[in-house]
Amino acid sequence: MARDRRPSLVRRAILRDRGKELDTARVAQALETLRHRSKTTLHDRLHRLRMAMGLAVQAGLAAGLSWLAAHELLGNPQPVFAPISAVGTLAASVGQRFRRTVELIVGVAIGVAVGDFLIYLLGTGPWQLGLVVTLAIVLTIFAGASVAIVIQAAATAVLIVTLSPSTENLEIPRFIDAFVGGGIALLVTAVLLPLNPLRVINRAARPALDLLAAQLDMAADALRERDRDKAQRALDRLRNNQEELSAFTEAIEGAKETAMLSPARWHRRDELTHYAEAADPIDRAMRNAGTLTRRAVTLIEDEEPIPETMPDAVAHLAESVRLLKHEFAVGEEPEQARERALRAVSEAGRAYADGVGFSGSVVIAQVRTTASDLMVASGISQEEANRGVRQSFGDQDRPGGEGERDEAPKPPAAPPLG
């Protein structure tokens, strides 16, 4: 009986071969996943390198010039703090460098004052150091200072307490170095080596728009295939879009600061103002695409009808985003992007006429809303975008859900870039 229960030699060989096939398939799948991740990681690293190359060159130039100015012009034999201040200013979030310079100087002043006063009263030592740092932080926070001022005040207080016994008259050089380093950093960014603000914005906008287009494509495929997991993956990725949107918003602020400070970029102010206004509708398009995808997940789960033109409408939205990115980058009027957005609305109208369920009607509504957002981002008013959406949708009753906005018009955003 026991011998009969054991698999035969042939069956054991078959099972062993199947196990080897499964192992081979798993290894191949794992290798493919690793290969894809390595390509993605390399692409991301190269993109970050291109984005940071200008900053790296600016920081190196500012550090060298600030040391030279403090050492040769002001006679400071060891101008350590000047290049540190310059690099600290440039390391601030793009668009906040002028503010960071002011904060750096204010923080140094507070740290010098607190450190000198307590050294005069209490002398130096480890417990005095702890007390000085604590009081510097407490005073700056009580005064409502920013985090940058708090850090500078505490760091300066540490330097004053620890270096004063061995270095005389440290306070004035430290204060002057803060002025020199911050001033040189602003000089480099505004006059000597100003970045092209439009190029900075285009590079920063690319990841956000690529993310939106890719996830809309995935949502369209999920609707065609009724693949709930694929729709959920697209939704999860859209929800984790803060890095891309933050980089885009930060680049806009930096471009506006460059155009304000740099005489060579003053002629770009009007273009940058309009381009900056595209950030809000792109952000709204991201959020509305997330709502669209979330309802697509529910639609598939509930086995609601999916007319053939519904996935096509979502795919046209993705193509509109890609066209918008391209036309922004080459400086063309984004006519093709608007046309494709209206085509998405037209396909959504056909899908609605064919019959959809509750979640399907929300998907249709979000196609209209997202298309309206993309048209506003392309440089037309909210009313004009809404009018085009209604005309393209046809004579169907408006579906439930959010729909396009009818609030007061926003100024035109992102005109053609010359």
UniProtKB/TrEMBL annotation:
Membrane-protein topology: Multi-pass membrane protein
Record region (Disordered): 380-418
Biased composition, class Basic and acidic residues, residue ranges: 395-409
Main subcellular localisation: membrane
Sections of the chain in a coiled coil: 224-258
Transmembrane annotation, as ranges: 49-70, 76-95, 102-123, 135-163, 175-195
Pfam families, sorted: FUSC_2
Localization terms from the record: Membrane
Keywords in alphabetical order: Coiled coil, Membrane, Transmembrane, Transmembrane helix
Domain Integral membrane bound transporter: 67-188
Stored InterPro entries: Memb_transporter_dom
Protein name in the entry: FUSC family protein
Organism listed in the record: Micromonospora reichwaldensis
